[in-house]
Amino acid sequence: MAYEEHTLEAVELLKRLIATPSVSRDEEAAADVLEAYMKEKGLNPQRHGNNVWCQSIHWADSSHAEEVPTILLNAHIDTVKPVAGWVHDPFTPTLEGDRLYGLGSNDCGGGLMALLQVFMLLKDKPRAFDLIYLASCEEEVSGKNGIESVLPLLPKIDFAIVGEPTGMQPAIAEKGLMVIDATAHGKAGHAARNEGDNAIYHAMKDIQWLSEWQFPKQTDLLGPVKNTVTIVNAGTQHNVIPDTCTFTIDVRSNECYTNEKIFAFFQEHLTSELKARSFRLSSSKIDVEHPFVQACIREGLKPFGSPTLSDQALMRFPSLKLGPGESSRSHTADEYIKISEIADAISLYVKLLSSL
Known about the structure:
Elements: H1 4-18, H2 28-40, E1 46-48, E2 51-56, E3 70-76, E4 94-96, E5 99-101, H3 105-122, E6 130-136, H4 147-150, E7 159-162, E8 171-174, E9 178-185, E10 189-190, H5 199-212, E11 226-234, E12 240-241, E13 244-252, H6 259-269, E14 273-276, E15 284-285, H7 291-298, E16 304-306, E17 319-321, E18 336-338, H8 339-354
Parallel strand pairs: 3-6, 3-7, 7-17, 8-16
Antiparallel strand pairs: 1-2, 2-6, 4-5, 5-18, 8-15, 9-13, 9-14, 10-12, 11-13
């Protein structure tokens, strides 16, 4: 089955979204564009803040409505800020051959548009499940006004497809994220005299320990927990011994350890004062025997574990990432999506969902 018309629709709407800046927490204009498009196509969108969704209920006998599973099709409308090095204008959609350049085209405009077309293709067809399409905001910053604020407003979700760029291979697990702000304490003094207690040296010992420590449990899908110190700050001027040194720890957890357990372990072994920004972004995993995962395998797709975080971390129901584009293009200069990738994604999504 060919979907040329739907691919064209997806590309034209994606061009409009690229031309509508939607950096995290500033997505109102992009949400307006999506909401207007849905209404134009005869859908009945609902909106909460800058999150827009629509639902298609389909069952033969309403008395059995609670027995019908609901599948969520989700992708995000927000982008990161454009990095340095763009040759193309990040907010001007530029089509060169099969490539559409523009900020958010790959992460995750391709999945956002493909899933919307899939929703419209399937909404009126006989199927054994209900569908919800959700374009959510604040994904790039894991914001409280994003998907976390919408899920309580939706019916019970049984399974979700998250349209992040995975090369249309199923990411059946992803690492969690915890950011820890650490403060090493010392005592101020004059650098010319043997006085004070240098907080930098205390921080260095903790940073060295973090660089060498490896949690013993790891898995084939997600590998080991990864601890990385990414920011260090200390000192006011060259001749003053710093009394504090702050540093930031980026922790990517696997499914063997909760963020809370990792934090508690660090507190036992580090001398610096630690404060976790959040524990809520946990690692996630779906059973390889799940019907949708098995459908992917039958199509020759290869399940894998993803090191990058998505809104999947906030879903308390089975989910996986599956979307057009490549993760390696995300957050880079001259980000692009291939038109052929969007076309192939629409076709594959429909085939997989229709097989359930």
